[in-house]
Amino acid sequence: MITIDKQFIKDMLVKYKDYKDWLDIFEEKCAMDMGIRYSHSPKSITNNFHSTTENQVLKREEDREEYKEKQAYVDLVNSILDKLTVPEKFIIDRKFNLINDDFYKRFQPGKVPDAEIYTCEDFPYERAYYIKIKLKAYNKIYSLLKILPTQ
Questions:
Q1: What sign does the CA torsion over 22, 23, 28, 31 have?
Q2: How far is it, in rounded angstroms, from Cα 26 to Cα 20?
Q3: 134 CB contacts (<8 Å, ≥6 apart)?
Q4: Which ranges constitute the DSSP H helices of the chain?
Q5: In b/e form, how buried is each residue of 58-67, taking b as 16+ CB within 10 angstroms?
């Protein structure tokens, strides 16, 4: 059996959740603020030119680069999660709040108690099988991380 670093996997999935949330908020913000607002800049006493429009464009470029980096990370983790079986995905989605369910939102990602998942009426298996599936999911994620190019 492979020795896996569970904390590394947990940190990776928490980072994935944080990045997904950031991307959602960024996309909402961009949709609401489609154009750059042009405002008249006050005259400067010096010859330095500081256009608020230019500053906004530069900030957007920085944001776009950050967006690309985070989107690449989310895409990589998505490709890994797509390889999980349905029960493995069920567990990981709930353990790390990757689904939009108010019940699990009361917990921090990765901190959902196991009992809250294996006693869920949508999970048809016993506790022992839950533990086995969760371990298989962690092993699969870890082995896929080893073969995929990561940052």
A1: positive
A2: 10
A3: 88, 91, 95, 114
A4: 6-32, 52-81, 86-95, 102-105, 114-118, 127-147
A5: eeeeeeeeeb
Q: What confidence tens digit (pLDDT) does each residue in 53-70 have? A: 666 655 667 778 899 999
AA letter at 149? P
Q: Which two tokens stand for residue 83?
A: 């390889």
Q: What is the identity of the amino acid at 55?
A: N
Cα Rg of the chain, angstroms: 21
At which residue do the structure tokens 């699969």 appear?
A: 140
Q: Helix, strand, or coil here: 6?
A: helix
- DSSP letter for 127, please: H
What global pTM score does this model have? 0.76
